[in-house]
Fold:
Amino acid sequence: MVTNITNLSRSGLYDWMLQRLTAIILGAYSVFLLGYLVANPDLQFTQWAELFDQTWVKIFSLLTLISILAHAWVGMWTITTDYLNDRTFGSKSVLVRFPVQVVCFIALFSYVVWGVQILWGL
Amino acid sequence: MKVSVYRYNPETDKKPYMQDFDIEIPEGKDLMVLDVLNLIKEQDSTLVYRRSCREGVCGSDGLSIGGTNGLACVTPLSEAAKGNKLVVRPLPGLPVIRDLVVDMSLFYKQYEKIKPYLINETPAPAIERLQTPEDREKLDGLYECILCACCSTACPSFWWNPDKFVGPSGLLQAYRFLADSRDTATEERLADLDDPFSVFRCRGIMNCVNVCPKGLNPTRAIGHIRQMLFKSAT
Structure:
C-alpha cells in the first residue's frame, strides 16, 4: 500500500466516497440558492435576511461550507500530488508541494470561519 | 510514403530527434506498421524496436503510432497514416532506452505489486481446483491482457504517478484475481489497494479502453474494484 500523511483520511476509498457525497450536497445547495433567486426576482434585503434567519437554512449553509472544505481539500490534494511531484520538481518537490497544500488548507478553513461569521452575524 | 521515426541513442545523441524515411510501399497491399518498420530496418540497420510474434499476441511492439498507442504488428498502415505520412514514437511516459525501446521496469513493478497469481491457503485437492462455468465466465475480458503497456502509457494518471498508481493494466489484472472463485486472498488484495493512489488515481477518462489492442475494458474492471472496496468497507 502507498502511504501518505497529508490527504484527508489516508484511505482512498473514504476520500472518494466523501468527495461524491459532498458533491451531492454542493449540487443541492446550488440548486436551492439559484432556485430561490429565480423564484424571487424582486428580492429585498429583509427577505434575504429572513431566509438565512431560519435554522434549517443555517444548517444547510454550514453543511455546504464544510462540504466545500472536504471536497476541495481532496481535490486540491489530488492536484498537488499529480502536478507538483518529483516528475515536475525533482526529489525536493515536497518543498513546493507542502507549502501549496498549507495555503490551500488555510484558504479553505478561512472560508468556513468566514461563512460562520456571516451566517450568525458575528 | 514518408515515415517519421523517433530516434535516440544515448551513447551518441545529446537529445532525441525525429528522422524521416521515404519508404516504397508495395501496390495493392495494406501493410502493418511493423512491416513498415522492417522496411526501414533494411535501409537503416541501426533502428531499434521490439517485436516478436508479429500477430498481436506477445505484446512486444506497443508503440505510439500517429499519436495513438497500439501494437505495430496489428495496426494497418491505412488506419495509422495521416495524409500519406506515418509518425512512430515510443510509448509515452516511460524512459527511452534507445529509439523505440522503452524501459518497462515501472510498469512491471506495478504488475508485481498486485500479486498476479492465485493465492489459496486451503489444502490442494487431489487433481485440480474446479470452477463452475459461470465462475469461469467472470474472468472473460480480464485474462486476455498481454501486458503490452499500451493502456497504462496512455493514462495521464500513470504518467504523473507511475510509482504509486497501479495503472489500468495492473488494475485489470488485480480484478482478474479478485474475481477468481479459486482465490481466497480477496480481503488482503483489497486492503493493499485501499490507499489514495493505487486505484483512486483513476479519473475514468477511458484512454485505456480506447487504445487496448485486445479490446479489453480496464475502466470497467477498476469500477468493479471500487465497488468491492465499497461493499467490504460499509
In short: The radius of gyration of chain B is 20 Å. The longest helix of chain B spans residues 218-233. Chain B touches chain A at residues 157, 159-161, 164, 191-201, 226, 229-230, 233 (CB under 8 Å). The beta strands of chain B are 2-7, 17-22, 62-65, 68-71, 85-89, 96-98, 101-102.
